[in-house]
Design a protein that fits this description.
- The complex is a heterodimer of chains A (204) and B (182).
- Chain A is 68% helix and 0% strand.
- With 204 residues, chain A is mainly alpha-helical.
- Chain A has 2 domains: 12-100, RNA polymerase sigma factor, region 2, helix turn helix motif (Rna Polymerase Sigma Factor, Chain: A, Orthogonal Bundle); 107-204, Winged helix-like DNA-binding domain superfamily/Winged helix DNA-binding domain (Arc Repressor Mutant, subunit A).
- With 182 residues, chain B is an alpha+beta fold.
- Chain B folds into 2 domains: 1-30, no CATH class; 70-180, no CATH class.
- Helix content of chain B is 35%, strand content 16%.
- Chain B is built from 6 helices and 6 strands; from the N terminus they run H-H-H-H-E-E-E-H-E-H-E-E.
- In chain B, the strands form 2 sheets. Chain B has a 4-stranded antiparallel beta sheet with strand order 3-6-5-4. In chain B, strands 1-2 form a two-stranded antiparallel ribbon.
- Chain B starts with 10 loop residues before the first helix and ends with a strand.
- Classes of the chains: A mainly alpha (204), B alpha+beta (182).
- At the A-B interface, helix 2, helix 3, helix 4, helix 6 and helix 7 of A face helix 1 and helix 2 of B.
Chain lengths: 204, 182
């Protein structure tokens, strides 16, 4: 039997921790970092697919937390959402800087928006390698808004309210994007399965 | 796996999402960490910001949700004419300012410019700053505790109130010196 110190101290809330972080308390920063950094990093990694960018975005979020006096406001949302929001901001800025593509195009919620480069080859990828890498290729082939919704809700299991706050959208918009993301991913997987079956039939 | 998935979700999609979620949960940041478990590069960036702007980041709070922008970006609007003028003003003040309060243009009292940062690098940076376009004087506000940090009289009753100050900023982003205005 292990002894538990008494009185047991409740874990400090976000406000108290953030106040200590801003005062330069490294111990408090370490606590927040240990608690929140994995989710921030994984969100960034899942939406951008680049571990270097994800690492940078995650670090920028904590630098902002420690140095911006008017940054986080607990009344406006959770610390987890705020940190992920800063990481998202950093990723988007980096994305735009290199002009690889426009992740938040005006027709992002449209019915007919293009699914972007790489989709045409998704089936082939899934056929060739039915593994996790291929699955991620399919997820990353989704347009940014749909991919982000899928990552936040289905992969990270964040509450709708928090996911919507991170993405900067209404909950209904999040639901819509999530529905479309699932539908597109399912359709891609069905196409891939059909291709595999057809290939197997031809081989037989 | 995920309780948010509707019951009608195809099993193939359900299992794929579970697989992706499981794989994602195994990922961790690549950056090297120090004994505290945090990336050394991140801590260094925080230290640099604090050394330039003070503990509460008073002047670094206007950069939006992203990372604190560099000084060069923050004051990119400062044109060459302004730089030349302020450089001349700063150098004159540095040469002629007595250690105590002195009247500045406009009737304000200012302290002398006080070196900030590495004292060994300061003379070289100041010589470099004497070249046209190599330094700016940037008005700002600092937490009043920074007065005490610079060895100046500080009234704790006014803690939290910002004090007006001017930074002498090298073109490379280093803050060379600070003076307080009242």
């Amino acid at each position: 039997m292990s002894l538990i110190p008494w009185p047991r101290r409740a874990p400090p809330d976000d406000d108290a921790l953030v106040a200590r972080v801003r005062a330069g308390d490294r111990e408090a920063l370490a606590v927040v970092y240990a608690k929140e950094s994995p989710a921030v990093y994984r969100y960034a990694l899942a939406v951008c697919g680049n571990s270097g960018w994800a690492d940078d975005a995650m670090q920028e979020a904590f630098i902002a937390l420690a140095t911006q006096a008017d940054g986080f406001d607990a009344a406006k949302g959770s610390l987890a959402a705020w940190l992920a929001g800063v990481a998202r901001h950093t990723l988007l800025a980096q994305w735009r800087a290199v002009q690889r593509h426009e992740p938040l195009a005006d027709n992002a919620d449209g019915e007919d928006d293009d699914t972007g480069p790489g989709v045409a080859s998704t089936d082939a990828v899934l056929v060739r390698r039915q593994d996790t890498e291929a699955l991620w290729a399919a997820i990353r082939a989704l347009p940014w808004p749909f991919r982000e919704a899928l990552v936040l809700v289905d992969l990270q299991e964040r509450p709708y309210e928090q996911a919507a706050a991170i993405a900067g959208i209404e909950i209904n918009t999040l639901r819509s994007r999530l529905h479309r993301a699932r539908a597109r991913l399912a359709a891609q997987m069905n196409r891939a399965e059909a291709t595999v079956a057809r290939a197997a039939g031809e081989a037989a | 796996m995920n309780a948010t998935l509707p019951p009608s979700t195809p099993e193939t999609l359900r299992s794929a999402l579970a697989r992706a979620a499981g794989d994602l949960a195994k990922q961790s940041p690549l950056s090297s960490r120090n004994a505290s478990g945090m990336p050394a590069s991140m801590l260094a960036a925080i230290d640099v910001h604090r050394s330039r702007f003070g503990a509460d980041g008073a002047t670094g709070a206007t950069g939006g949700a992203g990372a604190a922008p560099s000084l060069k970006r923050r004051f990119a609007w400062a044109g060459g004419g302004l730089a030349t003028f302020t450089l001349a003003l700063a150098v004159v003040l540095l040469v002629s300012a007595p250690p105590d309060d002195m009247p500045a243009a406009g009737g304000e009292l200012t302290t002398a410019f006080m070196p900030v940062g590495d004292a060994q690098r300061w003379p070289q940076l100041m010589r470099d700053a004497a070249q046209p376009g190599r330094a700016w004087v940037v008005p700002t506000e600092l937490p009043s505790e920074s007065l005490a940090a610079m060895g100046l009289p500080y009234d704790p009753a006014h803690a939290g109130e910002p004090v007006r100050a001017e930074l002498l900023v090298h073109a490379n982003g280093d803050v060379l010196a600070v003076r307080f205005v009242r």
